[in-house]
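Translate structure to sequence.
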């Protein structure tokens, strides 16, 4: 059978490997215990727990979805539904620096695609791919909610506003 695209809901990569399981390392477990004290129910702690998963492993693997579901007494489908709803949760491994270029209207009319195309050219990768050294992933994203300072590129958790090709290239050099 032909391999399905990894974004397809039935792609093999989206199912947990029964031979694999994950568990928070002690430092992250302490943070998780603290998160639980801040919310009225386990379910309410889902979003911050997923952020903690991402902070710990860089992405939210199918195994992590099962782990979170057991921690919070939720079904894996419930957790996965939330993970797949928000694009701030990475459903695939990303590079050390995740370069998310907004190409929505305000950014697009201020040349966001020039930045996006130039990044892919300079890094010699296709959109959505990670460089072979694991340093950079380039992704196209919808509105980042900072249209007044378009075009915007989000690098991990930081916004870089009023960007242009030159500014992006010098930022890239600093990150290398
Ligand atoms: S359109 Fe890019 S931040 Fe809103």
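Result:
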């Amino acid at each position: 059978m032909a391999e399905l695209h990894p974004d397809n809901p039935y792609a093999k990569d989206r199912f947990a490997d029964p031979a694999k399981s994950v568990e928070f390392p002690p430092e992250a477990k302490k943070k998780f215990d603290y998160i639980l004290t801040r919310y009225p129910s386990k379910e309410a702690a889902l979003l911050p727990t997923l952020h903690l998963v991402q902070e710990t492993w860089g992405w939210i693997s199918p195994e992590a979805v099962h782990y979170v579901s057991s921690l919070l007494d939720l079904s894996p489908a419930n957790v996965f539904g939330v993970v797949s709803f928000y694009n701030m949760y990475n459903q695939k491994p990303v590079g050390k620096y995740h370069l998310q270029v907004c190409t929505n209207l305000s950014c697009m009319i201020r040349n966001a695609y020039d930045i996006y195309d130039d990044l892919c050219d300079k890094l010699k990768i296709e959109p959505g791919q990670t460089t072979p050294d694991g340093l950079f992933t380039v992704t196209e994203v919808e509105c980042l909610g900072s249209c007044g300072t378009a075009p915007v590129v989000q690098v991990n958790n930081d916004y870089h506003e009023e960007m242009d090709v030159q500014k992006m290239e010098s930022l890239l050099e600093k990150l290398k």
